[in-house]
Design a protein that fits this description.
- With about 450 residues, this protein is an alpha+beta fold.
- The chain folds into three domains: about 100 residues, no CATH class; about 120 residues, Phosphorylase Kinase, domain 1, CATH 3.30.200; about 180 residues, Phosphatidylinositol 3-kinase Catalytic Subunit, Chain A, Domain 5 (Orthogonal Bundle).
- Strands 4-3-2-1-5 form a five-stranded antiparallel β-sheet, sandwiched between helices. Strands 7, 9, 10, 11 and 12 form a five-stranded antiparallel β-sheet that branches.
- It is globular, with a radius of gyration of 22 Å.
- The N and C termini lie far apart (about 65 Å).
- The structure holds adenosine-5'-triphosphate and magnesium ion.
- Magnesium ion binds next to loops.
Length: about 450
Amino acid sequence: MTDRYAVVWARTGAAPRKMGQLVATGREMRFSYVPEFLEQTDTAGLSLLLPPSLWRGRPFVHASTEILPLLPRLMALIPGRNANNIQRRLYTSLLAKRSNVPAPGFETEWELLMLTGHNGIGHIDVFPDDRAALDAYADTGEPKKRIGSRSEFWRMLKEGTDQDFNQEALDIMRLIGPTPSVGGQIPKLLVSIPDKPGWDGSLAEPGTRKIDGVPYLDVVMKVEDPQYRGLAALEALCLDVHNELGFEVPRHWRATIDGLSVLAVERFDRTPAGTPVAMESFFSVYATGQQQVRTMTDAEVEGVGLMLLKLAEIAPIDAAAARLEVYRRFLMALLTGNGDLHLENLAFLGGPEKVRVAPVFDPAPMRAWDRHDLVSALPFYIDEKQPLGYSVARVGESFGLSRAAAADILQALLKATGNYSERVLALKDVPEVNRKNLASRVKSLLARLIKGVGP
Ligand SMILES: Nc1ncnc2c1ncn2[C@@H]1O[C@H](COP(=O)(O)OP(=O)(O)OP(=O)(O)O)[C@@H](O)[C@H]1O
Ligand SMILES: [Mg+2]
């Protein structure tokens, strides 16, 4: 393979800025900041671990592997490798039409990055060259399109995309934009919806601010996969439960469009005016710092607490607040039967002046499905000689809490989520078997937790 080049730009604040250059050889990928970017102080860099002020002109080298062919931070900009991912299906079929079809693996991922690597989640945009960047930023587009519920778009989502692609598919790609997902289970789109209390399912291109006088806002829209019937209702319940307990939770809406159940969640990586806010997953921070971290479960819960402390040495993050927040999220994941709180479901938001843990996202209680019935996606140390609550409180020590303080937090959350199982059982949109599974799994875990923290 010949060397490949690309440029990285960033869009926060006033105007887009060039951040750096990428060179890929197939075996490794190198990134370096351009001198102009090093002179500014208002735009966050490529990763919290590569702050421009410290990294300066040195290249960051990533050794490509099968799982992580590209820099971890950039993997988040391409559609996940999962058969259900509609963006991936659309874009790979577009690549297959080229005269020299890219080989599977690195070449395909690289070409996908060139196609989908901009205007996604966060503030980082990748383009083949500066001209493409300037063109993309200059494109104010045609009037934003609104799509009706019976559109081609929904037909494609429902029936799959095996047909030959044409202009219609290109229009759909423009509408659905780049992917917001890393290997997610369910199809997701970045779109805008009317900013109103109720949602009738109408959609427009991401970035749309107004149609016929009605304000629009950017959302991540998750389309329920028939394999996981009830997921949208369960995820919405968990967003509500977190919200009621004072966690920062984005607004969300549910609708049924042409028989598909969808959940729209307001994007927190955009300001109300639509300006991108830097966002980086915990996974990206881990995998940038340690080559042996390959997947989103390659860390222990205790290690996450220690990582936050270390990160505060180079990033402007309030370590105590971040550690308390993440420990509370970990407890909530146990108490709601989430089982899926891994390094891609936690993120950092903001920068460069201040970084914090992003609001709650993807709190879906996956233990409702047998094949996802895990107490915790990330392992933690369990002392088999003690009740479970003891070990869970001890995890708090890695988050800067005494065991007693952690036990108090656990006890308070146990109390506050006391009626969760009943709320699950009352959800009519969820198949009974999944409601019952989730409620009984949560109840039996609660019984084990309560013992460890005393009355
Ligand atoms: N409200 C939001 N604002 C900004 N970014 C978001 C928001 N919700 C999700 N994201 C981003 O989109 C990615 C995918 O979303 P999410 O985690 O909800 O779905 P998923 O992991 O693909 O779904 P599942 O775990 O159900 O398969 C997240 O990792 C995060 O980067
Ligand atoms: Mg997720």
